[in-house]
Amino acid sequence: MKSFLKAACSFLICLVVPAIVFAQHQTHPALPHSKHKTVVIAHRGNHINAPENTLASTREAINCGADYVEVDLRTTKDGHLVAMHDAKVDRTTNGTGKVADMTWQEIEGLQVFNRNKKTHRIPEFKEMLALCKGKINIYLDFKDADVVETWKQIKAAGMEHQIVVYLNKEEQYKKWKEIAPEMPLMTSLPKEITNKEQLTAFLAHTHIQVADNIADPELLKAAHELGLSVWLDVQSPTEGPASWNEALHKGVQGLQTDKPAELVSYIKSHS
């Protein structure tokens, strides 16, 4: 995941003093309720026993007690919102081609690769919403979709208070603030931000509730003082108690993991 607005960073730094005053008067959308003190995010679902971004991996995330399931959102040629990480279906299915060039009927007919020999398919976003309602929050990685249609489906499902949207592009931020100003937003900070003053200036211009790429202790402290949550990505083939302990000792508020069941157990045993 990469940040946006890098070009605006130098300009924002020049506005430190007015930004501090401005930031003190901001109201921020509330994050969804989490079961654990440290937020556990299942990366693309709990995909150890079921394929990523499927209803099955989402059920696994629910069953293991994760606070959030990450859902990657894309759009078919005929406007259907679907859960898919890659722009192409080649890696995860028995088909080929770009999601944006395929109709929902074509997408629906694909089989998602799996380890348990069961047949899985690419789900529509509305199916994910229905499955997650009242059971688990959604970390919505907003890859390629229409904000108006996404918000329409979120409202229709009654999921307005169970979602955080991860932004990948500047125009996504502007659109979400216009269409759904109370939706909690998340992104990566520009690398140029290295101190509290710069972070304050950025947050005065870009009103996010969560960042995913702050590891420096001083900047983490500044983020905490400014009311910004930090959810680090720790997913890797070698992740485990050592890497989780290292991240938690930095004072972050959440972890995105490929091993949500194990992380939930670890957090409970160390709370």
Question: What is the top-level CATH class of the domain at 32-183 and 234-269?
Answer: Alpha Beta
Shape: globular
Radius of gyration: 19 Å
Distance between the termini: 29 Å
β content, as a range?
5-15%
Corresponding CATH superfamily of the domain at 32-183 and 234-269:
Phosphatidylinositol (PI) phosphodiesterase
Content-based structural category = alpha/beta
CATH topology of the domain at 32-183 and 234-269: TIM Barrel
Largest sheet: 8 strands, parallel, barrel
Q: Helix count, per DSSP?
A: 11
Give average pLDDT, whole number.
90
Strand order of the largest sheet: 1-2-4-5-6-7-8-9
Low-confidence stretches: 5-26
Q: Helix amount, in percent?
A: 25-40%
Secondary-structure element series = HHEHEEHHEHEHEHEHEHEH
Do you know the CATH architecture of the domain at 32-183 and 234-269? Alpha-Beta Barrel
User: How many β strands by DSSP?
Assistant: 9
Task: Give the topology.
Blueprint: H1 6-13, H2 16-23, E1 39-42, H3 55-63, E2 68-75, E3 81-83, H4 104-108, H5 125-132, E4 137-142, H6 147-156, E5 163-166, H7 170-179, E6 185-187, H8 196-205, E7 210-211, H9 217-225, E8 229-233, H10 241-248, E9 254-257, H11 260-269
Parallel strand pairs: 1-2, 1-9, 2-4, 4-5, 5-6, 6-7, 7-8, 8-9
Antiparallel strand pairs: 2-3
Describe this structure in words.
The chain has about 270 residues and is α/β, with parallel strands linked by helices. The protein has a domain at about 30-185 and about 235-270: Phosphatidylinositol (PI) phosphodiesterase (TIM Barrel, Alpha-Beta Barrel). Helices cover about 35% and strands about 15% of the residues. It is built from eleven helices and nine strands. Residues about 5-25 have low confidence and may be disordered.
